[in-house]
Structures are given as C-alpha cells and as structure tokens.
C-alpha cells in the first residue's frame, strides 16, 4: 500500500515538511509518479516493531532492581 506525503506524515505523527526532508535525504524510499511522491507503508513496519522491542527492553532494564554489591563494607 502506498501513501502520499500527507498520509505518511499522519501515519508517523510528524509534520509533512519532515517527511519531505526524509525523502530528500533518502532516509525513506519514495516513488515519484510525476505529480507527487508515493511512499510504501510496509517499509515502516519493521522499524516500528523494532522500536516497540527496544521500548520493552528499556522498561525491563529500568524495572530490574540494582543488586547489592558484595564488596561494599558497612562503615557506620
């Protein structure tokens, strides 16, 4: 499924100008049909899945308690 620049901006929740910049810098792939750019929606699925995995990993790391250091001596 192909999206226009406007639809892509709405899908990614970013401004249209940002999508256009990403296209110009070749960060996202797009086809030019003579009047507008068309972006394949599927290219974002892998990225969005990876971002979700990273979020879960970070949450797990942040929720793990810090283990006590066995070398710490109580000097009270």
TrEMBL record:
Domain Helix-turn-helix: 2-50
Record keyword DNA-binding present: yes
Keywords: DNA-binding
Transit peptide listed as a keyword: no
Gene3D superfamilies named in the record: 3.90.105.50
A GO molecular-function annotation: DNA binding
Record-linked Pfam families: HTH_17
Annotated protein name in UniProt: Excisionase family DNA-binding protein
